[in-house]
Amino acid sequence: MNFSELATQVLEILAALAAAPLFLGWVNQCRAWLQNRSAPSLWLPYRSIRKLFYKDAVLAQNASALFRIAPYIVFGAMTVAAAIIPSMGTRMALSPVADAIALVGLFATARMFIALAAMDIGTAFGSLGARREMMVGFLAEPALLIIIFLASLLSATTALPAISEYLATQPLALHPSLAFTAVAFTMVLLAENARIPIDNPATHLELTMIHEALLLEYSARHLALMEWAAALKLFNYACIGFALFVPWGVATGNGPLQILVSIPVLALKLALAGAGLALIETLSAKLRVFRAPEFLATAFLFAVLGLLVHLLLGA
Amino acid sequence: MTSISPLTACLALIALWGAIGLAGLLRPASLRFAGRALFLLGALCGLSLAGVAVWSLGMPTERLVLPLGLPDLPFHVRRDALTSVFLFLLGMASTGISIFAAGYFRKGTGASPGLLCLQYHLFLASMGFVLLADDAYGFMVAWETMALSSYFLVTTQHRVAEIRRAGFLYLLIAHLGAMAILLCFGVLQGGSWQFTFDAMRSAQLQPAWATIAFLLALFGFGAKAGLVPLHVWLPEAHPAAPSPVSALMSGVMLKMAVYGALRVTFDLLGEPVWWWGLVPLGIGLFTAFYGVVFAAVQTDMKRLLAYSSIENIGVAFVGVGLAVVFFGTGLKVLGALALVAALYHCLNHALMKSLLFLGTGAVLHATGERNLGKLGGLIHRMPWVAWLTLIGALAIAGLPPLNGFVSEWLLLQAFLFADDIPHSFINMLIPMSAALVVLSAALAGYVMVKFFGIIFLGTPREASLSQARDCGKLERLGLLWLACGCVALGLLPAQVIAHLNLVAEELLGTSLPSSTSSWWLLAPLPERQASYGPLVLLMAVAGVVALTFLCVRLFYHRRERRGPAWDCGFVRLDARMQDTAEGFGQPIRHIFQPFFRIERELPTPFDRAPRYRVTVSDRIWRALYEPIGSAVQWLADVCAFLQQGRIAIYLLYSFVTLIVLLAVML
Amino acid sequence: MGNTPIDMQLLNACAALLLLLSFAMLSQRRVVSLVNLLAMQGALLCIATLLLAWRTGNNHLYFSAALTLGLKVFLLPWLLHRLIRRLQVYWDTEPMLNIAGTMLVGLLIVVFAFGLAQPISALASTATRSAIGIAVAVILLAFLMMITRRKALSQVVGFLSMENGLFFGAMSATYGMPMVVELGVALDILVAMLVLGVFFFQIREQFDSLDLHHLERLREDK
User: For a tag site, which of A57, B525, C153, C184 has the least CB within 10 Å?
Assistant: First the structure.
C-alpha cells in the first residue's frame, strides 16, 4: 500500500460521495425532458439531503436501536462498496479487500439491514416493503452471479479491478456473450435500484412501492443518509457496469495524469448511462409485483445464454 | 507430561463426559447438581477438547488399540487431521451449548434432570467416539449410541403424542441409515473379513463394488444428515427436542454424517472416481434449494431452523461432491479448495445454527410460544438474546464479514473454475448450478429476515409478550460464546484455512498454495488474484460509520421527538396488521408453487367470523413415504397370515425350518 | 478472443442472435409477434449466408441467401400474416408448462445441444464449425416450442423455425447444401405451407377453432 494508491482511494470515495446525488439529479432531469415536463434542478438531490439534515428527527415510539443504526450501516456499506469498485483507477488501496462476490455480499448486507429496519416499527407497509425487497434481492442475485462468472471466465479472476484492466486492454471485438450479459446487468440494475419497471422511484402509491415503503418511517438525518445511500447504490451499480462492459478510459496506473484523464471519461460515461436509464424508464411501464420474477428470470436467461455462448463460441 | 499424547487426552476427555453423565444419576432429582454443576463441568470438558484438537491438528496420525470391547474385537482408535477438525467442532459447539443448557433446564413434566444429564453427556461422548473409531465395530457401536441417546433426548417430553411420533420417525430413518452404513462396511472389507479401517484402506475393491460402497455410504450418512428425500425426520425431531438438544443435533450431529461421508470417500475408498461426485453434488444442490424454500414458508420457529439446517447440510454436500469431481479429474488444488469450503461450512454451521436454536430456546422459555404468529417486538424485552441472535441470523444469511460468507465465497470460487473439467456437459452445467447455490444463499437471507424480523422486531402480537424477560447469565454466556465464534471464524479466515488445509493435505495429498500475502487477506488461489479481507472490510465499514456518526453529531442539532408511527398517516395501527409468518412466506409460495402441497381455506365475503387458513406441506411425504408406508402395511398384513395363534402351527414352522436347513446343509 | 477477423465475429454474433430469437419465440404468446420473430430469424440467416458467401467465395451461397431472403423473410411471413388475419388467431397460451419452466428446460436443452455438437464440431473443417451447436439448439428449441403450443399456426411457425435451424446447421458444417437440395427444400416448404393453409381452413370449418386439442378426439376409441 503506497501513497498514490491511498490518494486514489480517498479521491475516489470522495468523488463517489459527491457525484452520486448529481447522477440521480441528472437521471431525473433527463426523464423530465423525455416526458415533456419542465426539469427539476440538477442540484435538487443535494438540496433535499441538506434540508433533511436540518430537520428535527421524528422517531416512532417503539423504534429500537436497530432502527437508528441501520442508516449508518447502509451508508457505510455503500461507501465502502464505492471504494472497491474501480470507477476511476484500478490501483487502489482497498481493492484486494473484496472481490466481485464480496461486493455482492456487501450489497446484500445493506439490503438485509434496510429490510430489518423496516420491520422494526411494526407497520403493515414496513413488513410489506421488507418482503418485496428481499424477494427482488433473491431473484436478482443468481443473475448477477452469472454475470460475474462470465466476466471472470474471460479474465480468470473475480477481482473487479483485474477484470476491468484485462477487458480494457483487449483489442476491440464483437462479443455476443458480453452483449447478452450487459442486457442482463441492465435489468438487474433496474431491479436492484428500485427503478421502473420493478418499482417507481417517483411514487408513493402504496400497493406497488418497494423502496419507499422501506423508508416510510424514517425522517430527517436518518432519511438523508438512506437517500444518499440509495443514490450511492445507483452510482455503484453504474460503475460496476462500466468496469465490466465499457472499461476503457479507466486509469490502470498510478500516475496523477492518468487519474486526471479518467475523471472526464467517467463523467461522460455517467452522463450517457443516466440518459439511457431515463430513456428505459420512460419507455417502459411499471410491472405488477408478481411479474418481477418473470422480469428477473429473463435477466437470468440472458446471463446464462451469454455464459453458454461464451463457452461454445469462445466469444 | 510428555507421555500424554493428544489421542489419549481426547479419550480421557470423552471418558470424562461419560463419567459426568453417570454422576448425574447420583442425585437425579436435583436440578442444581445434575442440571447446573454437571453441565458446567461438561462445558469445561468440551472446551478442553477443542483446545486439545487445535493442539493436535498439526501432529502426525496416532493409533491405539483399546483393551475394551469383545474378546476378539478390541476397539481401535485413531486420530488424524480430519478427526481433529471435527473434534474441534464438537468441542467448540458443545462448550457454548452446555453453558447455555446449565441455565436452561427447569423443573418440568419431562425426564428428570439426572436422566437428561446422562443422555446428554452420553450423546456428546458417543459423537466424540464416532470421530475416533478406527474399526467398523467401534464406529457402529458409537453411531448407534449416538442415535439412541439423541432419541431419548428428543422424546424428553414423552407424554406428548406428537413428540413420540417425531421420535419414532427419527429412530426409523436413523436405523435405515445405520443399516446402509453397516452394509457399506461389509462391502469395504473386500473379502478380507477384517473390519478395521486399516484393512479397508488396503483392500482392493472392484470398481463396481467401490461404487456400491460409495452409494451405500451416501445413503447411510445422507439419512443422518437429512439429504432430500431422507430429510423428513429433521423438521419433526428438531422442534420436538429441548432447544440445547436441537442445537446439538443440528449443529453437531449432522456434521458427524459429513465426517462419515468424507472418511469413507476419501480415506477408506482411496481413489474416488470423478463422476461419483456428481451424485452428492446434485443431491446437495437440490437439498439446499429445497430446504431453504421450505424454511421460508414455515410458521414454527424451530421447524424453520430445521429446514434451514437441511439447506446448510446440502451446501456442505455440494462442497464434498465438488471436491470428488475435481479430485477425480486431476484438478487437485481445486479439489482442496472445495473440500476446505465444505469443512469450513460445517464449522460455521455448527456455531451459527447452535446459536439460533439456543436463541429460540430462550424465546420459548420467556414466552412459551413457538409459533411465529404469536411473537414480535422482543428486541425491547430481551435485548441480549435479540442482538446475539442477530449475529447468528446475519451469519447464516451468508453476509460479510461474518463466517457464513467465507465458506460461501470459497465454494463459489471453486465453482467458478469448474470449466477446467475435461468433460463437456459437466463444465457447462456446473457453473450454471452455482446459480442454485447463490439462490439458496439469497433465499437464506429472506428466511432470516423473516425469522428475526417476526420474532424480535415490530410490535408484540400477543399481550402476554410484555411479560417476557431476558435470559439468565449462563444462557447469555452460552450465546455469547457461540456468537464470538461466528465473528472470529468470519474475521480470521486465513488462519482457519491454514488449519483446514492440513485435512486437504491428508485426504487429497494436495493443499492450497500457502498465501504469500498479508495475514488478514484470504487469497486461496494466488494466481487468480481473487482475495477477500473481512477484517479490513469490517474496519472500513466501521470507520465510515464512525466518521459519519461523528459528522452528524457535530453538525446536526440533535433535536428529536418520539411520536406514533407514521404509516402513511394511518392512525388505527395495531399489531395484527404486521406481516404474519404466512404473509411473509407468500411470495415464496407464489413463485415456487410446484414444490408445495398447499391447502387453503378461504372465507366467503359474507362470512361473519372469517377464518383464513393455509397449510403448506411437503410433497415428498405424500409421494414417497405414504406409498412405502402402505406397502409395508400390506406386506405385514400378508405375513399376518402366518400368525395363526395355535402353538402347534408355530412348532410346525420351526420343525419345517429345521428340516429344510438340515436338507440344505448336509 | 479478439484475434478473430471481423466477418467471423459478425457470423458468431448472428449465431448468438439466432439462439436468442429462438428463446424469444419460446416465450412469445402473441402469434403475430411469433411470425415477426420468424421473419427476423430468416433475415439473420440471410445475413449469415451472405457473410459466409463473401468469406468463402462460394457463389452458390449468394443464391441461397437470395432464396432465404425472398422465401423466409418476405413470402412465408406474408402468407402467415394473411392466414392470421383471415383465421383471427392472435393469442396462443401454453397449457403444458409456464414460461419460466419452459425457459429453464430450454436452457438445459441448449447445454445438451452444445455438449452434443462438440464432437461434431471437432470433425468439421469449416471456419464456422463452432456454430453447429447453436444450430442443433435452434432445432431442438423449435421442437420444444411446438410441444408447448396448442394452436396450429404456432406449430407451423415452430416447424419453419426448425427448418431454419437445419439450414443454419448445414451451412456451418459444410458451407451449405448442394443447390438442388436447397431448391427442393424451399419448394417443399412452400408447398407444405400452402397445403397447411388449406388444411387450417378445413380444421376451422370442422371444429370452429384452430385449437389442436380438438384433434385429440380423433383417436380410436378404446
Answer: C184
Q: Which chain A residues are within 8 Å of B293, Cβ to Cβ? A: none
b/e burial code for range B381-400 (CB count within 10 A of at least 16 → b)? bbebbbbbbbbbbbbbbbbb
Q: Would the CB atoms of B429 and C112 count as touching at under 8 Å?
A: no
A: neighbours with 3+ CB pairs under 8 Å? B, C
Q: Which of B243, B249, B242 is nearest to B160 (CA)?
A: B242
Instruction: Report the alpha-carbon distance of residue A189 to residue A205 in Å, rounded.
Output: 22
Written as one letter, the residue type at C106 is G
Contact in structure between A191 and A287 (CB atoms under 8 Å): no
Q: Structural domain of residue C186, as residue ranges?
A: 6-213
- The answer to whether the Cα torsion of B101, B107, B108, B114 is positive or negative is positive
Query: Domain coordinates of chain B in residue numbers?
Result: 1-206, 272-513, 595-665
pLDDT tens, residue by residue, B198-250: 888 888 888 888 999 999 999 999 999 989 889 989 999 988 888 899 999 99
State whether residue A37 is helix, strand or coil: coil
Instruction: Tell me, yes or no, if B425 comes closer than 8 A to chain C by beta carbon.
Output: yes
Interface A-B: count of C-beta contacts within 8 A: 256
Answer yes or no: is C1 within a domain.
no
Which amino acid is it at B5?
A: S
Mean pLDDT over B50-61 rounds to 89
The complex's ipTM works out to 0.93
For A246-274, how does the pLDDT look when each residue is reduced to its tens digit (9 = 90+)? 888 887 776 778 888 888 888 999 999 99
CB B10 within 8 A of CB B132: yes
What's the pLDDT at C1? Answer: 44
| Residues A73 and A226: beta-carbon distance below 8 Å | no
Rounded to whole angstroms, the Cα distance separating B87 from B124 reads: 11
* Three-class secondary structure of residue B597 per DSSP: strand
Q: Is the distance from CB of B98 to CB of B248 less than 8 angstroms?
A: no
Looking at the partner chain, which of A172, A176, A311 has a beta carbon nearest the beta carbon of C12?
A: A176
- From chain B, the residues in CB contact with A308 under 8 A are 428
Q: For the segment C164-194, what is each residue's pLDDT rounded down to a tens digit?
A: 888 888 888 777 667 677 777 777 777 777 7
Q: What is the reported pLDDT for B1?
A: 45
- CB-nearest to A61 from B434, B530, B562 is B562
Cell of B115: 436422566
Q: Which of residues 105-164 of A touch B (CB under 8 A)?
A: 105-106, 108-109, 111-112, 115-116, 119-128, 130-132, 134-135, 137-138, 141-143, 145-146, 149, 152-153, 156-159, 162
Q: Is residue C220 part of a domain?
A: no
Give the Cα-Cα-Cα angle C49, C50, C53 (nearest 5 degrees). 85
Does C125 fall in a domain?
yes
> Domain tally for chain C?
1
Handedness of CA B117, B123, B124, B128 (dihedral sign): positive
Nearest CA in chain B to A72: B545
Q: How many CA atoms does the CB half-sphere of B211 hold within 13 Å? A: 9
Does residue C222 form part of some domain?
no
Instruction: Decide if A212 contacts A203 (C-beta within 8 A).
Output: yes
The secondary structure of residue C128, as a DSSP letter, is T
Largest CA distance in chain B: 103
Residue B522 has pLDDT above 90, yes or no: no
Beta bridge partners of C222: none
Size of interface A-C (CB pairs under 8 A): 70
Q: Are B220 and B136 in contact (CB under 8 A)?
A: no
The nearest CA of chain C is from the CA of A243 a distance in Å of: 18
- Collapsing DSSP to helix, strand or coil, B617 comes out as strand
Taking the Cβ of residue C111 and every Cβ of chain B, the question of whether any pair is shorter than 8 Å is answered with: yes
Percentage above 70 pLDDT, chain B: 98
Q: Mark out chain C residues that contact chain A at CB-CB < 8 A.
A: 1-4, 6, 9-10, 12-13, 15-17, 19-20, 23, 27, 99-100, 103, 107, 110-111, 114, 117, 130-131, 133-134
